């Protein structure tokens, strides 16, 4: 639904068993709706119902109900939320207006308990709140990925550097082999020439010579075969050496990996489950406390439906329930029936409110612990995956090593058979040799040996040339790798700068919008509220890291008209409330919340006087499609009378 369509739509809201509301059905026109009345008249419950329809979980079931629901209709779209009590927790369901209500909870639903307002009052670091809607996490993930890629490239370049050092040695080896091959070729040519000359001078015993030549040919063939087997054995040994080298590297990597304590991941998962359950229990307790507080506030103020019915009955009978329940400072307790001071019940209510705030703080601490545990679990799982990968590869290496060792044994057996055949051929040649052909046999033997030596040298030269070509091919990649590393470094610098830039822009926009809001409020002694971005070393889990911190500053003016800087801690309670509200309202503007969230709700504005409330409502009426603001009667009178009024029962 577009913003234009929303702005023309009338909103219908139905509520059942939420907060202090039994059943309620009402409508809102586009623009501002003023919820006027005294405290404890279910105005806040109505606002929380609107929030619940948007997806917020900051809502409580009515104390005596096990189920509740909220239905919000905007134009042709209807959104429903359901709530069901299950033990100590409340389970929600349905289809809310927003898929993710976090932004709205922070900056659009500005009740007294709003996180943004309370964070300022507590003096918390505001960076998390300001940057939460900005997708900084994805940038950090990109940085981590690029850092790993940079480390991988550095490893490859280190390997290439070692190969580069080896290249001159291989080139010298190649030159030496080429020289040796040339010498052997010359020797072989001379020997073959001698054989030809000898053959030309011998004309008899052609048969013997023919058989001798045949056997000598077989002998040369077998020597070539044994040479080929030797090459294959050498190749297998080199592969074994490479496997052993990889195995050593993997074992070193495994030793460098910190041990994952047995069962630690299970312990963390168990603790995470426990903390989540505890958070649900605390949230349920907060909801119950909210219901109890609302109920007692209504009973104390006389706005409870039970009290109203009793008053009506008393009027019909000529009596006065108020006279029966209230003295000057006395009230009949609705839980035990005894007469107590009204201040005692008010004191109990204040303790309940304090307990609720303590529970909310416990919930925040549990959330931080959950984040730390999930980070620790992720680290352990990553280490375990790497260890599993190493173990799998070690197992593969062991299997491959066994296969290559078996192949070497088979080749050695083949070589042994060839040696036997060569011995047999040499014996046959010896038998065929005659006194007059002994020289010829020696020549052939020498030629065979030269061919064998030449074959080995050529094989060695081929291996060296292959290795040189492989190294040169890899070295050709070095420039690309170095260029890639430079690109990664540039990208990392850009990403880190982007985060700082986003933080600086966010701070600048917050300061601008807080100035705008303060201009609307026109405080004489509150000149400026602004945020400063600094970098500090802070504890994150078990270690300290350098992080950005957003500090809030307040500029005030004394009676003599002199401006000076003050801290939030030195402000009065009402000034802290105003400061928190200004911060939250600035967040609404900077993140353009009005573009995605139809409703804005305002409550607990007692720290601001009526005229300023009126200007504030007028200012934000131009942004929100629907602005529901809860005001006391005297404050509501100062707001534009054209705004619709609504008084919850």
Automatic annotation (TrEMBL):
Regions of biased composition (Acidic residues) lie at 181-199
**Which InterPro entries does its entry note?**
P-loop_NTPase, Rad50/SbcC_AAA
Bias class Basic and acidic residues marks the residues at 202-214, 398-416
Q: Where is the Rad50/SbcC-type AAA domain?
A: 13-218
Ranges for region Disordered: 181-214, 362-385, 398-420
Give the GO biological process terms: double-strand break repair
One Gene Ontology term of the molecular function aspect: ATP hydrolysis activity
What is the name of the protein in this document?
SMC-like protein Sph2
In its UniProt entry, the species of origin is given as Haloferax prahovense (strain DSM 18310 / JCM 13924 / TL6)
């Amino acid at each position: 639904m577009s913003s234009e369509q929303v702005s023309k739509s009338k909103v219908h809201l139905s509520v059942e068993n939420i907060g202090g509301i039994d059943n309620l059905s009402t409508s809102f026109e586009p623009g501002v709706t003023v919820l006027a009345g005294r405290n404890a008249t279910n105005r806040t419950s109505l606002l929380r119902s609107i929030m619940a329809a948007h997806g917020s979980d900051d809502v409580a079931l009515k104390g005596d109900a096990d189920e509740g629901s909220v239905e919000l209709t905007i134009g042709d779209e209807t959104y429903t939320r359901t709530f069901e009590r299950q033990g100590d927790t409340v389970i929600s369901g349905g289809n809310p207006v927003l898929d993710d209500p976090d932004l709205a909870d922070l900056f659009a639903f500005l009740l007294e308990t709003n996180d943004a307002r309370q964070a300022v009052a507590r003096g918390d670091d505001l960076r998390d709140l300001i940057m939460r809607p900005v997708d900084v996490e994805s940038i950090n993930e990109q940085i981590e990925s690029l850092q790993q890629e940079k480390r991988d490239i550095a490893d490859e370049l280190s390997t290439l550097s070692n190969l580069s050092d080896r290249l001159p040695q291989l080139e010298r080896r190649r030159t030496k082999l080429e020289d040796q091959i040339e010498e052997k070729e010359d020797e072989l040519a001379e020997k073959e020439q001698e054989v030809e000359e000898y053959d030309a001078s011998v004309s008899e015993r052609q048969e013997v010579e023919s058989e001798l030549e045949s056997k000598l040919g077989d002998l040369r063939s077998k020597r070539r075969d044994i040479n080929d087997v030797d090459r294959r054995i050498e190749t297998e040994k080199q592969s074994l050496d490479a496997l052993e080298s990889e195995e050593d590297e993997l074992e070193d990597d495994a030793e460098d990996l910190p041990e994952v304590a047995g069962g630690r991941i299970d312990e963390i998962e168990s603790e995470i489950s426990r903390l989540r359950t505890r958070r649900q229990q605390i949230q349920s307790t907060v909801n119950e406390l909210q219901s109890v507080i609302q109920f007692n506030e209504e009973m104390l103020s006389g706005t409870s439906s039970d009290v109203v019915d009793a008053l009506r009955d008393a009027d019909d009978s000529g009596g006065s329930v108020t006279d029966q329940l209230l003295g000057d400072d006395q009230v009949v307790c609705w839980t035990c029936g005894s007469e107590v001071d009204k201040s005692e019940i008010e004191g109990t209510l204040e303790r309940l409110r304090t307990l609720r705030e303590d529970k909310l703080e416990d919930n925040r601490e549990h959330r931080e612990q959950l984040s730390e545990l999930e980070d620790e679990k992720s680290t352990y799982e990553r280490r375990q995956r790497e260890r599993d990968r190493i173990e799998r590869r070690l197992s593969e290496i062991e299997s491959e090593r066994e296969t290559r060792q078996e192949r070497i044994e088979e080749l050695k057996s083949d070589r042994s058979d060839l040696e036997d055949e060569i011995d047999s051929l040499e014996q046959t040649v010896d038998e065929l040799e005659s006194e007059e052909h002994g020289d010829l046999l020696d020549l052939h033997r020498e030629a065979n040996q030269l061919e064998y030596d030449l074959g080995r040298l050529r094989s060695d030269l081929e291996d060296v040339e292959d290795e040189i070509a492989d190294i040169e091919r890899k070295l050709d990649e070095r420039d690309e790798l170095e260029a890639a590393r430079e690109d990664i470094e540039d990208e990392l610098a850009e990403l880190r700068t982007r985060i700082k830039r986003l933080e600086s822009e966010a701070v600048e926009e917050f300061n601008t919008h807080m100035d705008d809001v303060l201009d609307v409020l026109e405080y004489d002694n509150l000149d400026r509220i602004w945020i400063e971005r600094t970098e500090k070393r802070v504890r994150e889990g078990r270690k300290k890291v350098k992080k950005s911190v957003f500090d809030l500053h307040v500029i005030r003016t004394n009676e003599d008209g002199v401006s000076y800087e003050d801290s939030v801690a030195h402000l009065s309670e009402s000034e802290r409330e105003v400061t928190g509200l200004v911060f939250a309202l600035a967040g609404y503007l900077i993140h353009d919340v009005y573009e995605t969230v139809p409703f804005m709700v305002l409550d607990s504005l007692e720290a601001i006087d009526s005229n300023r409330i009126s200007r504030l409502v007028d200012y934000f009426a131009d942004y929100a499609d629907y602005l529901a603001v809860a005001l006391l009667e005297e404050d509501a009178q100062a707001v534009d009378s054209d705004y619709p009024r609504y008084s919850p029962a």
